[in-house]
Amino acid sequence: RSATSTLSSVTPTLGPTTGSTVVTLTASEILGSGGSLFCRFGTVVVAGTRTSSTTAECVSTSQPAGTVSVDFTNNNRDYSTTVPYNYHTPITVTSVNPTRYYYSTSVQVFV
């Protein structure tokens, strides 16, 4: 049976360029079990896990900032339709102001 399926969404729709984000794919139908499911982020293929008849999970790969297409296959031949996934540069908090406050007051914090 063909692996072709309609991929309707990925959650979350964005992640850091470092990868390692667990991404949930929702599709019209996801066949297979065990090691037969693969996800593709741009041109990079990774193993995935079928979590129900319409959802699967894959861990995002590291990629440069920008948008890639995500799809999946369960036969290494026929891929689903694609949806976009956005990579962003990781955000680093360099300071927080004020650095302390009294619990009895309301304080606006700047990051």
Feature tags:
single chain; 111 residues; mainly beta; eight-stranded mixed beta sheet; 8 strands
Your description of this structure?
There is one protein chain. It contains no helices and eight strands. 0% of the residues lie in helices and 40% in strands. The mean pLDDT is 87. It starts with 6 loop residues before the first strand and ends in a 23-residue tail after the last strand. The chain is elongated. The protein is an all-beta fold.
Write the SSE topology:
Elements lengths: L6 E5 L2 E3 L5 E6 L10 E4 L2 E7 L4 E5 L6 E8 L9 E6 L23
CA-CA gap between termini: 52 Å
* Alpha plus pi helix count: 0
Alpha-beta content class = mainly beta
Strand line-up of the largest beta sheet = 1-3-6-5-4-7-8-2
SSE pattern, N- to C-terminal: EEEEEEEE
Proportion of residues in β-strands: 35-45%
Taking pLDDT < 50 over at least 5 consecutive residues as the criterion, the unreliable ranges are none
- Rounded average pLDDT: 87
Percent range for helical residues?
A: under 10%
Biggest sheet statistics: 8 strands, mixed
Give the strand tally.
Answer: 8
Whole-angstrom Rg: 19 Å
Shape: elongated
